[in-house]
Design goal:
This protein is an alpha+beta fold. The chain is built from eight helices and 15 strands. A hairpin with a 5-residue loop joins strand 11 (about 240-245) and strand 12 (about 250-255).
């Protein structure tokens, strides 16, 4: 005869299993009803909601992640990690000739190469010296070869590097977006032309906003371009004004009677900041033939007496002082120049009074 206790336990187990199965089925059916209800409600909400335009709000200048298609250039900052050899890791900057200095390997030309290509090359070279090195990783920590300067009526003016060059709106929003007094109807795009030693300025109307400005209508940005967003505050001062923008202590509009030359204009605007690039000051002027931009070496004027740098001012002129690379050498150079600016203005004023 079979063991009754075992049989009873088996029966109870089957009964419990039946209860569990029944309870599980009931719970599943309940969840299914809930899911169906949620789905029906969601569909109903979608059908009931009005369609507000098929196009989404256009976002400025997407920046694609990853460096697989990025090409290295001068001033880019690279982080090099050599696995198994922490003594060889470090940060290097691509020089103006497109080269870097690598421990044990010396000078290497990297301009035009991707970080991945450079990493493979470094891996092969280091493995010849030390077979225990498994891999070298290269990443870009500062995209300075794709740098754009944004000045004027933006929230955080300065220089910005991009992995992928944005459009004009993207660059402005990288600088925090337009300020409350921004005059978007006459944004200036200044591009240096090293071959001709001059700059070209284009006026761009962004007054329709991001949604109202077709992306294809915007001029493409190039590395080292300068974008100036003027202020509407200057328009209320009157026609006899000029603007000083960029790396000065008190940027803004000034009456033309307050200064007659670029050096005087820099003086009344409080002087250049410690990071100013006085060798590349821009004077933008509207003429009957269009907008003209001059690049002025104010540092050369103050130290070597270059006469063509200190141009006379005209109503409507815009002076832009770009930001240079920071460093003690530049700071000390500017500290020496600031007294010269004051002295030059003092001499001019003294001459006028006699």
């Amino acid at each position: 005869m079979g063991n009754p206790s075992i049989g009873s336990r088996t029966g109870r187990g089957r009964l419990a299993a039946g209860w569990a199965s029944s309870e599980s089925n009931s719970r599943y059916e309940g969840l299914a009803h809930v899911h169906r209800a949620i789905l029906i409600a969601a569909v109903a909400a979608c059908l009931a909601a009005p369609v507000v335009g098929q196009a989404q709000k256009r976002e400025p200048a997407p920046a694609v992640s990853g460096d697989s298609d990025y090409r290295l250039g001068p001033e880019d900052v690279l982080d090099i990690q050599v696995w198994g050899r922490p003594d060889l890791k470090g940060s290097v900057t691509v020089d103006s000739a497109g080269r870097i200095q690598v421990p044990l390997l010396g000078e290497m030309r990297v301009e035009g190469r991707s970080p991945a290509e450079l990493a493979r090359d470094l891996t092969e070279r280091y493995q010849l010296l030390d077979p225990s090195v498994p891999e070298v990783l290269v990443s870009v920590t500062a995209y300075n070869s794709h740098k754009v300067t944004v000045l004027g009526e933006v929230r955080t003016p300065g220089q910005y590097g991009f992995r992928v060059m944005p459009d004009l709106w993207g660059a402005i929003y990288a600088a925090g977006g337009p300020g409350p007094a921004a005059d978007l109807s006459r944004v200036q795009l200044i591009r240096d032309n090293p071959e001709h030693g001059a700059s070209r300025t284009a006026l761009v109307d962004l007054s329709r906003g991001i949604e109202g400005t077709a992306a294809e209508s915007l001029p493409a940005l190039h590395a080292k371009d300068k974008i100036i967003v003027p202020s509407t505050a200057g328009a209320s001062v009157g026609p006899g004004t000029f603007h000083v923008l960029g790396a000065v202590r008190t940027p803004g509009p000034y009456r033309i009677t307050a200064a007659s030359t670029v050096v005087e204009a820099l003086s009344i605007s409080g002087g250049a900041l410690s990071g100013a690039e006085l060798r590349k000051v821009h004077l933008t002027r509207t003429t009957p033939n269009g907008v003209v931009s001059y690049q002025l070496d104010i540092e050369g004027y103050l130290t070597a007496g270059k006469p063509l740098a200190n141009l006379g001012l005209q109503p409507g002129d815009t002076i832009t002082v770009p930001e240079g690379q920071s460093g003690r050498g530049l700071l000390s150079r500017l500290e020496r120049l600031l007294p010269l600016v004051s002295l030059a203005v003092t001499v001019v004023i003294a001459t006028r009074t006699h």
